[in-house]
Design goal:
330 residues, Rossmann fold, 7 strands, binds thiamine diphosphate, binds magnesium ion
């Protein structure tokens, strides 16, 4: 990376440090989740490790005070950037009553917050994409200046939900961004067995929308492309399909053994391009991440992860009598 690319994009030193801190918090929380899972304390983990750069680049290009996001399960970086806290994420992982996502009812990583404009999601992949299109249509009908974001994996870009949503949004020129986080795998299925076209973004043309593939390990590159897509949406020029290419650094989930379908060497090779550390080097090279700043960031992040873990572990479970709440009218 060259020097001070962020200045050319209109990003202050303060903002890029905030981006880095959010990426780091997402990574450290995710790592803690795996430890808690292996210690038998939480039932399930599905990770965003390796995708934080894409998520943070995208989230910071949106207006986090008014836009809506329909994230998918790996988007911890996006929801942290939109204001969800480490404690809230841990409460969800421990399935505790105070979990704001679902009161401990949903699987973890099914992010949701009315206050933060994070749309709730279902477990069938890609359903959130149509929801984001609905938000964009509502914004258009009400004359509100809102952009909707939906993310999904490259495997999910084969689902009918994606194609129907993209077609509708393209026809009606809706202010929605489809962000495909291409991490090379859909569970055990590698990219080359998922798509016949070269790039997911090639599909944009079929729906009359702007499409671009970008290095998902580079938050500034993702920010730049997303900003273009967001500006287009705000100007009434319709939807965009952005594909961020990175690599899933963990197994699909805590229930998956990835060594049955890929090699250790392949994973080690991908780690060399890990966006978190590439960005860290960039910030050090241009003098923004000083030793002093780094120490303070590490301390804040470590504290947040420990505090969230302790808080959520000690928090009460939901009352058994409340199990049917939100299912039947009360
Ligand atoms: C409709 C549907 N089919 C299958 C599944 C099981 N499933 C969960 S995640 C996943 C892989 C999705 O891959 P991709 O879209 O590339 O996202 P990634 O997990 O790689 O981020 C599958 C098949 C599901 N949840 N929903
Ligand atoms: Mg994938």
């Amino acid at each position: 990376m060259g020097k001070n690319r962020h200045e050319a994009l209109g990003l202050s030193d303060e903002t890029v440090l905030e981006m880095y801190e959010t990426m780091l918090l997402a990574r450290r929380l995710d790592e803690r989740l795996w430890k808690l899972n292996r210690a038998g304390k939480i039932p399930f983990v599905i990770s965003g490790q390796g995708q934080e750069a894409a998520q943070i680049g995208a989230a910071f290009a949106l207006d986090r005070s008014k836009d809506y996001v329909a994230p998918y399960y790996r988007d911890m970086g996006v929801v942290l950037a939109f204001g969800m806290t480490a404690r809230e994420l841990m409460l969800s992982a421990f399935a505790k009553a105070e979990d704001p996502n679902s009161g401990g009812r949903q699987m973890p990583s099914h992010f949701s917050s009315r206050k933060l404009r994070i749309l709730t999601q279902s477990s069938p992949v890609t359903t959130q994409v149509a929801h984001a299109v609905g938000v964009a249509l509502a914004a258009r009908m009400k004359g509100e200046d809102i952009v909707a974001y939906a993310s999904f994996g490259e495997g999910s870009s084969n689902q009918g939900d994606f194609h129907e949503s993209a077609n509708f949004a393209g026809v009606h020129k809706l202010p929605v961004i489809f962000m495909c986080e291409n991490n090379q795998y859909a569970i055990s299925v590698p990219l080359k067995k998922q798509l016949a076209c070269e790039r997911v973004s090639d599909r944009a043309a079929g729906y009359g929308m702007f499409g671009k593939t970008v290095d998902g390990n580079d938050p500034l590159a993702v920010y730049e492309v997303m900003k273009e897509a967001v500006d287009r949406a705000r100007r009434g020029e319709g939807p965009s399909l952005i594909e961020t290419v990175s690599y899933r650094l963990t197994p699909h989930s805590s229930d998956d053994d990835d060594m049955t379908y890929r090699t250790k060497e392949e994973v080690e090779e991908a780690k060399k391009k890990d966006g978190l550390y590439v960005f860290q080097s960039y910030l050090k090279d241009c003098g923004v991440l000083t030793e002093e700043k780094e120490k303070a960031i590490n301390e804040r992040v470590d504290f947040a992860v420990d505090d969230a873990t302790d808080y959520a572990e000690q928090a009460p479970y939901a009352e058994p009598e409340s199990a049917l709440r939100y299912v039947y009218e009360e």
